[in-house]
Amino acid sequence: MRWMKSCIGAMFVAALMQTGAWAAPLKVAFVDTGNTGRSITAETIAKIYAWSHNLDALFISRGIDVNPYETKVEMNAQILWSQKGVDLSTHVAEQLNERDVKRSDLILTLTERHKSHILEKYREAAGKTFTLGEYVGGMGGDVDDAWGKPMEVYVQMFAQLNKLVPAALDKAMAGRPAPAAN
Prior knowledge:
Helix content is 47%, strand content 12%. It contains seven helices and four strands, in the order αβαβααβαβαα. It has helices at 2-19, 38-52, 75-83, 98-103, 112-121, 132-135, 151-173, and strands at residues 26-32, 57-63, 106-109, 129-131. It is globular.
């Protein structure tokens, strides 16, 4: 009898996994150079978009060359986010590591250089690492670094990411089950 219960339980779990009803959230990493501007902006846009569209996804942002002396969000990016009611003052830049690569389902970089660096350093990143523009079908190419530039450049970066990130999430979530309503 115990054996039959185990079999039925295993069949139930297998059926849930096959239908996607018990699928794990999609895990997406956004990667740039220092994790103080573009990637944290992409992560924040993704979190807001996922929340407002009820997407079952988790997000992180990382850098490939984090400066340990510059770990806070760039001032112009903080100003733009604060105008939208978002406080990023507690963000601390983090270096991309092997664990992040292994645990991410999708790694979206802000430039081709970031993508190349990751693919050279982490073999397991192959097949799941793309530039953001490449992933959404050639929309926009690289996202230029605004670090140290005037506010207008940050505004342009925000506008570019506000187009690319939702398009990428829509593509990544296509065919995945929507989370159950609470």
